[in-house]
Amino acid sequence: MGFLPFFSFETWILLISFVFIFVLYGHWTFGVFEKLGIPGPKPMMYWGTVNRYNQVYYLDDNECAKKYGRVWGSYELRRPMLAVMDPEMLKIILVKECFTFFTNRRNFRLNGDLYDAVNVAEDDQWRRIRNHVTPSFTSGRIKEMFSIMQHHSHKLLVRLQSKMDNKEVKVITIKDIFGPYSMDVMANCVFSVDLDSINEPSNPFITHASKILRFPVPLFLFQGCFPIFLPLLELLGLSLFPKSSTTFFRAVVEKIRAERNESSRKNLADILQNFINYQTNKLGKERENQGLNDHEILSQVTMLLFAGYETSATTLAFLAYTLARHPEVMKRLQQEIDLTFPQKGPVQYDGLMQMEYLSSVVDECLRLYPPAARLERMTKETVKVKGITIPKNMIVMIPVYALHRDPELWPDPEEFKPDR
Ligand code: HEM
């Protein structure tokens, strides 16, 4: 076997087998959409169709929608992912069959301590937790929290004014102000603590909340390319949510909770207290439809903090941006404000709810700049939706950003038109 350089025959066999298996594994999942007759970009080994037409994933979705229509097949690394932006199909997926075939989102498994947060939980556990989270967001409860929002909105105005009055400040990074504002509102509504991070930009709540949704890229790539190792990664305690941040939030909530058990702060009517009031530590079947356990309470409170922080801050930042670019809209909005609250009167909840133009402006802003540019659901069983077979365990991805810019649904999609 002297014609084989360097290695022995056995080593060569091993090497060739390894390369063969590596290449085969990298392609293994591809082809599923061809079989189903669904169009889509051609995948590359391991990489799938990620960033095929654009480096930015939601702009890539936009390009795919232009090329393939409202349904296409893509591969996020090795994972097949069906993109759907057909309105009739979406009604079935998100509404009609939500509780039968499309209850769950994709579960990355590497959720660390947040394994039982409402956005991660599945099936009956999700239903039960969701049933306990929802009552905190009724119009009555939001009305109760309104004075907290007023308090922080006032502080926001003072902060903005002081920036404007400061002649040395030439540019204001608006997210650095709306971010802390959102966090202060969230923390106050969730556990009645006034963080005052708006006046303290280096507040650890802001740094940790900003970090928490930034998945570590190497781990994300590895789990996507080699899902076979997921159980091992779980066993090693690896998590896509930065551990330092989840630990920070958990420690804060635990401390607040412990103090509350001891003191008169029990009477507070915030979201944390809402959970505690319904709490029960019964196990197993008995716990169904009853309260959340200690761990679940901590997870919901942590998750609510950053779920509300990032989305609200981004929305406010884009709202400021669009208003600055459309002075005619700002003027009309100002007129509606003056009409609803004459003589610069205080903003009231009921009046605010009547402001139709404001609502259209916010909706149009969310259409153009949705903070969540994609939604996801997983199929529980193989199911046919509008003639398209969606196999069991397929990720159904809703490209929200591309959907919001579909010219047939939104004529002149790039234009900001609150009156649409
Ligand atoms: C403009 C602000 C917001 C936007 C654009 C937004 C957007 C979203 C989106 C797109 C989802 C996923 C829905 C789905 O998969 O069907 C979601 C879920 C969620 N959001 Fe928000 N959100 C906002 C504000 C908030 C706030 C302030 C809170 C908390 C106080 C919050 C808590 C949640 C929770 C708990 C879920 C998970 C619900 C579940 O799994 O059942 N969001 N949000």
UniProtKB/TrEMBL annotation:
Residue ranges of the TM segments: 12-33, 219-241, 303-324
InterPro entries documented for this protein: Cyt_P450, Cyt_P450_E_CYP3A, Cyt_P450_E_grp-II, Cyt_P450_sf, Cytochrome_P450_3A
Gene3D superfamilies tied to this protein: Cytochrome P450
Segments forming a coiled coil: none
EC number: 1.14.14.-
Keywords noted in UniProt: Endoplasmic reticulum, Heme, Iron, Membrane, Metal-binding, Microsome, Monooxygenase, Oxidoreductase, Transmembrane, Transmembrane helix
Transmembrane keyword on record: yes
Required cofactor names: heme
Subcellular location field: Endoplasmic reticulum membrane; Microsome membrane
Enzyme class: oxidoreductase
Keyword flag Endoplasmic reticulum: yes
Source species, domain of life: Eukaryota
Catalytic activity: an organic molecule + reduced [NADPH--hemoprotein reductase] + O2 = an alcohol + oxidized [NADPH--hemoprotein reductase] + H2O + H(+)
Principal localisation: endoplasmic reticulum
Sequence similarity: Belongs to the cytochrome P450 family.
Function: Cytochromes P450 are a group of heme-thiolate monooxygenases. In liver microsomes, this enzyme is involved in an NADPH-dependent electron transport pathway. It oxidizes a variety of structurally unrelated compounds, including steroids, fatty acids, and xenobiotics.
Protein name in the entry: Cytochrome P450 3A
